[in-house]
Design brief:
CATH topology of the largest domain: 2-enoyl-CoA Hydratase, Chain A, domain 1
Distance between the termini: 40 Å
Strand content: 15-25%
CATH class of the largest domain: Alpha Beta
Oligomer: single chain
Largest sheet: 6 strands, mixed
Number of domains: 2
CATH superfamily of the largest domain: 2-enoyl-CoA Hydratase, Chain A, domain 1
Number of helices: 12
């Protein structure tokens, strides 16, 4: 259900939700597989960026309603385990040391919007539509509400969660739900350019430490956050990448990660 494609140099991995006949709906098997693949990529020190997209014309239509209807006869423990599986996927994305980008090629609805929101960056086709439609079918947008706390104002959260309305990519960008919306014909190139810029120009150690710090800072009081940030700053100064980066800057040379990228992408001519 997940198609995996490595870039020529192996630094960028594209994961495609491959259930186009179900509009890439998130059933338990797909959720577990996506979680497993992202977790396994933690062991790949060369991979720098993970792209998540959908097969066909839809990013993801959210929960698989056929599977959800069958869960009505399941026990409370079974339903909790199913719900926690999706929560584990969102947590795995947030805790990954890689930069994970949602390549939103089409509509991202309910849990599909949640999946996009869990990613570090999200770039959408201008034609894509978004919405947290759970309340329209008597469901509660519970897991996505945790993700939205860090993205949206309370006013915007109550609007999109309580109305269940659909909205376009430009509005999603303005409210801070996604990083950027672009014309459909520019989407692929924009996503790849963004991924390549991250893979070339940033330190893997610094990205992993920054993501960890951002997770720790969420919801902390100001002074406590400053103490955490000071500790992260001090640790970073002792890291290999920081020492190499500062040395390269002073010597007016590209840092090792840039030099490595440029060697691997040298013009053969």
């Amino acid at each position: 259900m997940i198609s995996i494609e490595h870039s020529r140099d192996g630094r960028i991995i594209t994961l495609t939700l491959n259930r186009p006949e179900k509009r890439n709906a998130l059933n338990k098997s797909l959720v577990l597989e996506l979680t497993r693949v992202i977790s396994s990529l933690e062991q790949d020190d060369f991979a720098r960026v993970i792209l998540i997209t959908g097969a066909g014309k839809v990013f993801s239509a959210g929960a698989d309603l056929d599977a959800l209807s069958r869960m009505a006869d399941a026990s409370e423990q079974e339903n909790l385990a199913d719900s926690k599986a999706l929560g584990t996927l969102f947590t795995t994305i947030r805790n990954s040391s890689k930069v994970i980008i949602a390549w939103i090629n089409g509509h991202a609805i309910a849990g599909g919007s949640g999946l996009a929101t869990a990613c570090d960056l999200s770039i959408a086709a201008r034609s894509a539509r978004f919405g947290f439609t759970e309340t329209r079918i008597g469901f509660v947008p519970a897991l996505v509400s945790v993700l939205l706390q860090a993205r949206l104002s309370e006013t915007a959260m109550r609007d999109v969660l309580l109305t269940g309305r659909l909205f376009d990519a430009e509005e999603a960008e303005k409210m801070g739900l996604i990083t950027r919306s672009v014309p459909d014909e520019q989407l692929e190139q924009t996503v790849l350019d963004t991924a390549e810029a991250i893979a070339r120009n940033t330190s893997a150690q610094a990205i992993a430490s920054t993501k960890a710090l951002l997770s720790e800072l969420h919801g902390r009081p100001f002074e406590e956050g400053m103490d955490l940030a000071a500790s992260a700053n001090a640790r970073a100064r002792k890291s290999t990448d920081c020492q190499n980066g500062v040395r390269s800057f002073l010597e007016k040379e590209p840092p090792p990660w840039v030099a490595s990228w440029d060697r691997d992408h040298a013009d053969p001519a």
